[in-house]
Amino acid sequence: MADAPILKHLNDLIAHAISPGDTVKLVPLTGPSDGSPTSAFFEIWEPRGVQPANSHPDSVEIFIILNGEGEAVSDEHTVSIKSGDVLILPSGSVHHIRNTSETERLYAVTIMANDMGSMKKGFEDLVTSGRTVDFEEPDKAAIFVGLAPIGKVVADPLHGQRHV
To answer: Is residue 18 one of the residues assigned to a domain?
Structure first.
């Protein structure tokens, strides 16, 4: 018999800070604890928040920027990031992301391709071993900001507006 799918609701998710004083929250969406070799997180940077420089020897890390602006540093390279960008950091790179806004949070979905290749016990384990922190309603809403239908809105005399 096949394994049943796993369904999680937004209100059941828990935010974590890896270390005291962190200005970045991570909300695990999936990972090895669900039987997945890849982990995914919703990541929230406070205004001017920054991660410490970090590296994952055998994992590619992908950030889908949902809202906000920032700066990503990977080894000697620096790029500006904003809503709609997809940032791919190569395995082994030493990197960090900084929210450049003084007032707004930066939001991303982060994918760790090969969670166990990131460190000895895996990145998901590092995150969930951190302290739990508030996962506020505006942060939850930010996950779905980018999910508006894509395409043109046209008038449909039978059904009102529709997306094409």
So the answer is: yes
Domain count for the chain, please give it: 1
Number of other residues whose CB lies within 10 A of the CB of residue 48:
14
pTM of the model: 0.81
Please give the average per-residue pLDDT across 123-148, as a whole number.
Answer: 79
Average pLDDT in the 58-84 region?
95
**Domain at 151, CATH number:** 2.60.120.10
d(CA 125, CA 73): 24
Contact between 56 and 112 (Cβ < 8 Å): yes
Mean predicted confidence (pLDDT) in 69-77: 97
The residues pairing with 163 across neighbouring beta strands, listed in sequence order, are 153
SS (H, E, C) the chain: CCCCCCCCCHHHCCEEECCCCCCEEEEEEECHHHCCCCEEEEEEECCCCECCCECCCCCEEEEEEEECEEEEEECCEEEEEECCCEEEECCCCCEEEEECCCCCCEEEEEEEECHHHCCCCCHHHHHHHCEEECCCHHHHHHHCHHHCCCCCEEEECCCEEEEC
User: Mean pLDDT of all residues in the chain?
Assistant: 86
**In DSSP terms, which residues pair with 156 in a beta bridge?**
160
